TrEMBL record:
Family: Belongs to the class-V pyridoxal-phosphate-dependent aminotransferase family. SerC subfamily.
Cross-referenced PANTHER family: PHOSPHOSERINE AMINOTRANSFERASE (PTHR43247:SF1)
GO molecular function, one term: O-phospho-L-serine:2-oxoglutarate aminotransferase activity
GO terms classed as biological process: L-serine biosynthetic process
NCBIfam families, per database record: PRK05355.1
EC number assigned by the record: 2.6.1.52
Cofactor(s) the record lists: pyridoxal 5'-phosphate
Pfam families documented for this protein: Aminotran_5 (PF00266)
Protein name: phosphoserine transaminase
């Protein structure tokens, strides 16, 4: 319906459904018949607070969030959570173990790519405990320096009673991901769920949030995601937090923990129903529209099937290109992300030819992250099967051109 739009395979902010954008445009002028636009209405108005409660309900229903967990909204993106999870979980640990010396407090980080590496670096920077890299996926790569795999279960050495165990479910830059086939896959991080249930499992789901059901959601202490990949525009961060991880951070200070900025405290968010201060009103609104549409389409089961199909189609053509010496997959089999497919185009100037050809056909956002280069195809929820097929078709053409 919008011929001027091109297909955006970018890694985030990324494509949103056209129907949502059209509805949001109306909401910008008049939110739900109030006569006030969504960017202008008070976040304390009854219309908007009801809308926020509905966004929460849409997430709870589609992800089957158990009553043990709260759904919270905040700002600051995934990056703010790199800090917030550390501060809130150290406060929790301090309340539980007031006598453990700070130097003995451990935080276990599973490093499988650039984002979990960055999160671990922030934990290190904040101090308040020892950051232990319980696995570094680069050590398990062929080259010894690439994030191209999810290490085998034997490669993790957890602390005895860490304040948190951290992993990034889908590494957006590197294209590696933990879990696909929940029922049968050995790639799902069961090994991250410690015997000692006091060790809280924290997951960064920024780039795979709501692309399918979240396996073992109830066993996680914290799941967080920026909205700007699968469910909305930038500016909104979604948190799913187990009740026992919502702690009185000020009481923790009296036990020796570092103070937590009030807007980063999960208890502040929880007590205020995510409305302590002005939220990203527009981002919440648009996310609500996306989530409503997702539910209508068939929820997580629908998106799981769709996203699987899309990813398989792209990996298949990468394989064809690989057999003809045109493409080179970058991720080990079994660790490939459904959301971000990364590969190299082989040969002098070939990557530029690939990107130029794609641009001529109305496809953009395919350049890999600047830190790793190559091609990255992001296949978030709003990318349709037809758009995926258009890319696959182009890849076949390109392989033909390069090999004649
Ligand atoms: N975590 C992951 C997996 C990401 O992909 C990103 C951003 O792309 C971030 C964290 C950082 O998110 P933000 O830019 O919202 O701070």
């Amino acid at each position: 319906s919008s011929p001027s739009r091109i297909t955006n395979f970018g890694a985030g902010p990324s494509a949103l459904p056209v129907s949502v954008l059209e509805e949001a445009a109306k909401g910008l002028l008049n939110f739900q018949g109030t006569g006030i636009g969504i960017a202008e209405i008070s976040h304390r108005s009854s219309e908007f607070t009801a809308f926020v409660r509905n966004v929460e309900a849409l997430i709870r229903r589609q992800l089957r969030v158990p009553p043990t967990h709260a759904v919270l909204f905040t700002q600051g993106g995934g990056s703010a959570q790199f800090s917030a999870v550390v501060m809130n979980m150290l406060a929790r640990y301090r309340l539980l173990h007031p006598d453990v010396p700070t130097g003995d407090v451990t935080m276990d980080y599973v490093v499988t790519g650039s984002w979990s590496k960055k999160a671990a670096e922030e934990a290190e920077r904040l101090g308040g405990g020892q950051v232990r890299i319980v696995t570094d996926a680069r050590k398990h790569s062929v080259s010894g320096k690439a994030f191209d795999n999810i290490p085998p279960h034997s490669a993790y050495a957890f602390s005895k009673d860490p304040a948190l165990i951290y992993y990034c479910e889908n590494e957006t830059v590197d294209g590696v991901e933990f879990s696909h086939d929940v029922a049968s896959s050995s790639s799902f991080p069961y090994h991250l769920l410690p015997e000692n249930t006091l060790s809280p499992l924290v997951a960064d789901y920024s780039s795979s949030f709501m692309c399918r059901p979240i396996p073992r959601l109830g066993d996680h202490a914290i799941i967080y995601a920026g909205a700007q990949k699968n469910v909305g525009p930038a500016g909104l961060t979604i948190l799913i937090v187990r009740q026992d991880c919502i702690v009185d951070v000020d009481a923790a200070v009296r036990c020796g923990a570092a103070p937590v900025p009030i807007t980063l405290s999960y208890k502040t968010l929880f007590d205020s129903k995510s409305l302590y201060n002005t939220p990203s009103v527009l981002a919440l609104y648009m996310t609500g529209l996306v989530l409503e549409r997702m539910e209508t389409m068939g929820g997580m089961e629908y998106y799981e099937a769709l996203n699987k199909k899309k990813a398989e189609a792209v990996y298949e053509v990468v394989k064809v290109g690989s057999s003809r010496g045109v493409f080179k997959p970058k991720v080990k089999e079994g660790s490939e992300s459904w959301m971000n497919v990364v590969f190299d185009v082989i040969g002098d100037g070939a990557e530029k030819r690939f990107l130029d050809g794609a641009a001529q056909r109305g496809m953009s956002g395919l350049k890999g992250h600047r830190s790793v280069g190559g091609i990255r195809v992001s296949l978030y929820n709003a990318i349709t099967e037809e758009q995926t097929q258009q890319l696959v078709q182009y890849c076949h053409e390109f392989i033909g051109q390069e090999t004649t």
